[in-house]
Amino acid sequence: MNLKSSALPTTWQQLCNDVYDALIDAHYSEFKKAEYKNIYRRLLNYLHATKRINLAIHQKHIDAFLDSIGILGCQSSEVSGPRQVLIKAMRILMEYHQTGTFLHRKQRIDISHFPKSYKNLLSQYLLYRIEEKECTCNKSVGNTIRYFFNFLIDNKIKNINRIRPKHVHAYIKTFSGLSRVTVSDRIHILHNFFKYLDFQGLIVPELAKSLPHVRELCRRKRLADVWPKSTIHDFIATIDRKTALGKRDYAISVLIARFGLRVGDVRAMQFENIDWRKSTIVILQQKTQVPLELPLSGEIGNALIDYIQNGRPNTSIRNLFVSHRTPHGPLKNNLYGITERYRKKAGITLPEGCRKGFHALRHSIATRLHEESTPLPVIAALLGHTSLESARFYTRTNTEMLRSVSLDWEGDQDE
Q1: For the chain, which has fewer Cβ within 10 Å, the N-terminal or C-terminal residue?
Q2: 247, 312, 355, 362: which one is catalytic?
Q3: pLDDT for 185-244, tens place per residue?
Q4: Taking the CA of residue 196 as centre, how many other CA atoms within 13 Å lie in the half-sphere pointing to its CB?
Q5: Is 250 a catalytic residue?
Q6: Is residue 277 part of a domain?
Q7: Closest to 14 measured CA to CA, from 4, 116, 67
Q8: Which of 221, 222, 252 has its CA nearest to residue 235?
């Protein structure tokens, strides 16, 4: 886990071996080490089978491996069980290749091995925040500083005045794969901590300035995942609406494809959310806790009625969509299996790197509406965004229109 001065691994076999050694150094459990070893063996077998084993280490080969098992583009939070571990193992592998280290995301830092100066400094700073800044000291502040100290100790830096910008940059690289919000929080915490250290005369003045701007560090590197219109049509048309399961999957798919609903809101939808007399769907969005009212079109209304009357299992659960396996409980996870089943059945091939789950359909409708000159506030309202900033992402696939509306848009943002 140290920042290595020697050359980083240049072959896939060497990289996998070095990461496994790093897991041992980091005192991973025997179970975890065996789990990761098996995953890396699977990767090497895939690289051998596809004649990539002698190619340069690159993320595109990891993506090809993940695509071969149907989880390309998924985040760890979007999947569960073995697949989540597999995604994390790939993240660690590439993080180690790029930096010579990797960060324990959820490791509980044992400060017993910290130098006394680090322990005292941590206590003093947390006390300063409470007494001088008159603010609470939440857990993330202390944890972020502990992670940073642990990184420094791993790299033989046991005196605060020996920290240099290169060490900060190396630590920032371990944020790879974290969300924009998490990265922003951690950099903000470090910035305030460095200001305190500078005021105390404990570090070189330029250290605080070495932290990158979050906007540049977290800039999205990919456009919205957009399925071609014909692809969405083929996907929905492939669903067998004669079976009970097909009726459910069809109703879910048209809800997301036509309205861009989040999967979590579809899973949580209940009978009470449908007003048949007014022909509306009214939900309280799980992510934003903001109500959202949508018109109940004939296509969606017929799909829901067909499922409720002819496909839904007989259960007292109020969730509209339920598992068709006994016991019939609420649906769980991101429903990736539904898109995977019918996408493969339809023989759909998507652009490299494009996500294959339901969230891609949400992206697709937003982009399509934007291409049809739908005003941004309307798109934001339909998707349940609380600000136009969230809708900005979808407009990047249509740069000409963006130029034409940018002035009006920026004006809206200032109001």
Answers
A1: C
A2: 362
A3: 888 888 889 888 888 888 877 777 778 766 555 544 444 567 878 888 899 999 999 999
A4: 19
A5: no
A6: yes
A7: 4
A8: 252
